Each structure stands twice: as structure tokens, then as C-alpha cells.
């Protein structure tokens, strides 16, 4: 099993999910004068719960993809680790829900775990849902923190601050979902010949390569326009506008132009790396925007 562990676990996804959740907590829910629902210990449990559910999903997905060629690790071992990790994740999430006196929130963790299972069961047959579900799960890591670790007893002045922060977070959630969705379609465009040979039903195969490109180009354009609107919303705070322009808007426009010209497998490989870099820059912008709001605006 030790030989195959790096083939099973996507460490990059785990690290990015943990990093995003810590960034949302540290840079948008702390230092603004209001208290939130979770203590530091309970927040750590929330991150742990998310990571355990995602970690469990790697084992079950690996089984459904490799079930006909398993050698070092068995079906029983993969299901054991999936069950244990998912159960621990749901248990931690349920504990947090009861701690903040919102027991119904425990169903969120059950839903996330079941979503990963349904995705894994359908992972060998590529459809549009294989693009939507992972994109949703990645962006839900932000939603989870914002929803569960919500502020308590806000004054009118704090409400105004919180609403501005919420607008920024909604933007990050939308960009995270759209960015990951676009990336997954670009991967399908790169693999179109192999997927066509294997009778898959990816977006580029069902609608054709050019139409699939047109769809994600339009989504990219919506993201760029939304980013531009965000930039003008904070136009009175030139520092935030510059951060949005340099770290988010310009890279998005660059990738849009590259996507428009992309035709070969090499072009799509380059684009995948470019989208990853844009998502990383988006994460990097969080502490910069937060610092300015905390120490200059307030």
C-alpha cells in the first residue's frame, strides 16, 4: 500500500483546500472586531473534517478507476480506508454542528461525503457531471467555512464591514467554481482523442471541440467582467483595485486570449498550468486585500 499511496492521494488538492480554509478564517473572519461561531479548536476540527472526507474520496475513486487492475492494494483495503476516513470526517462535522447548536448542519457533511461517493461511482464514465461535481466540491471548501463559522451579534457598523467581506467571498467562491470547471473542460479538450476512442461523453465530444471552447470562453468572459466590476466597486480604494487588476484581472485576460488561440494538445497543457497559476494568484490576493481592509480602511 505504501508504494501506491501517492497514486491514490492528490496531495496538491488537500494542501490547497486546507490553505484556502485557513486563509478565509484568518484573513476574512478574524481581526475585524466581531466574534464568529467557532473556537480555534473547532475550526481546526472543521478543516480536519473537510480533509478527511476528501481523503476518503481519493480511495473510493481510485477503486472505481482501477478496479480491474488492482495489484498492491485490494478492494477491501480501499473500501476500509474510504469508510473510516469518511466516518471520521462526518463525526467531526457533526460534533462541530452540535457545538454551535446547529445540529442540522451535520447533514452538510453527510451530503459532501455522499457527493464524493456518487462522483467516484461514475468516475470511469466521463460526462458533464465529472466536471461539475469536483468543481463544486473544491469551491464548497470556502462556503463551508463562511457558512459554519459565521459572525455572531454584529453591530450595524460591523454588518457593513461584513457585507463587504461577504461580497469578496462570494466572488472567490464563484471564481473558484468557474476556474476549476474551465480547467476540467480544457483537460477534456486535451484528451479528446483518447476519450473519443473510449466512447466517453465529455463536453467536447458531445458538442464538438469548437462549441466546447465557445462555452468556456463565454464563462471566462463572464469571470473577467465580474472581476472588472469588483475592481470598480473598490475604485475608491486604489490599493485593492490594483491587486485585483494585477493578480486576477490581467492573468484572466491572458488565459482568455490563450484559450481562444489554443488548438493543439501542447496548447491545452500550457493552459492547464496557466489556470492553476491564476487560481494560486487568487489565493495569494486574499491576505493582501485583507491586510489593506484591516489596517487602512478600518
TrEMBL record:
Membrane-crossing ranges are 14-32, 44-66, 78-98, 104-121, 128-148, 168-186, 215-234, 240-259, 271-293
Coiled-coil regions, chain positions: none
Superkingdom, taxonomy of origin? Bacteria
Q: Which UniProt keywords apply?
A: Membrane, Transmembrane, Transmembrane helix
User: What is the protein name given in its UniProt record?
Assistant: UbiA prenyltransferase family protein
- State the organism named in the record: Tenacibaculum adriaticum
Q: What is the lineage of its organism?
A: Bacteria, Pseudomonadati, Bacteroidota, Flavobacteriia, Flavobacteriales
Amino acid at each position: 500500500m505504501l508504494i501506491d499511496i501517492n497514486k491514490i492521494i492528490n496531495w496538491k488538492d488537500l494542501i490547497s483546500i486546507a490553505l484556502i480554509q485557513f486563509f478565509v478564517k484568518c484573513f476574512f473572519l478574524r481581526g475585524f472586531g466581531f466574534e464568529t461561531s467557532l473556537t480555534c479548536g473547532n475550526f481546526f476540527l472543521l478543516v480536519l473534517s473537510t480533509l478527511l472526507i476528501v481523503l476518503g474520496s481519493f480511495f473510493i475513486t481510485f477503486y472505481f478507476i482501477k478496479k480491474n487492475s488492482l495489484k498492491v492494494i485490494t478492494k477491501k483495503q480501499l473500501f476500509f480506508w474510504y469508510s473510516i476516513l469518511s466516518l471520521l470526517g462526518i463525526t467531526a462535522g457533526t460534533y462541530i454542528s452540535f457545538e454551535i447548536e446547529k445540529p442540522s448542519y451535520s447533514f452538510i457533511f453527510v451530503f459532501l461525503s455522499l457527493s464524493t461517493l456518487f462522483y467516484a461511482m461514475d468516475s470511469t464514465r466521463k460526462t458533464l457531471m465529472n466536471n461539475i461535481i469536483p468543481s463544486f466540491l473544491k469551491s464548497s471548501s470556502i462556503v463551508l467555512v463562511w457558512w459554519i463559522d459565521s459572525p455572531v451579534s454584529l453591530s450595524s457598523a460591523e454588518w457593513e464591514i461584513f457585507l463587504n467581506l461577504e461580497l469578496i467571498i462570494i466572488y472567490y467562491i464563484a471564481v473558484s467554481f468557474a476556474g476549476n470547471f474551465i480547467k476540467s473542460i480544457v483537460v477534456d479538450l486535451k484528451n479528446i482523442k483518447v476519450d473519443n476512442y473510449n466512447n466517453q461523453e465529455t463536453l467536447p465530444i458531445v458538442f464538438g471541440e469548437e462549441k466546447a471552447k465557445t462555452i468556456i470562453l463565454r464563462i471566462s468572459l463572464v469571470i473577467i467582467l465580474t472581476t472588472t466590476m469588483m475592481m470598480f466597486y473598490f475604485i475608491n480604494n486604489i490599493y485593492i483595485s490594483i491587486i485585483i487588476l494585477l493578480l486576477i484581472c490581467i492573468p484572466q485576460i491572458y488565459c482568455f486570449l490563450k484559450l481562444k488561440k489554443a488548438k493543439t494538445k501542447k496548447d491545452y497543457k500550457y493552459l492547464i498550468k496557466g489556470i492553476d497559476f491564476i487560481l494560486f494568484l487568487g489565493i495569494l490576493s486574499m491576505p493582501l486585500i485583507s491586510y489593506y481592509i484591516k489596517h487602512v480602511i478600518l
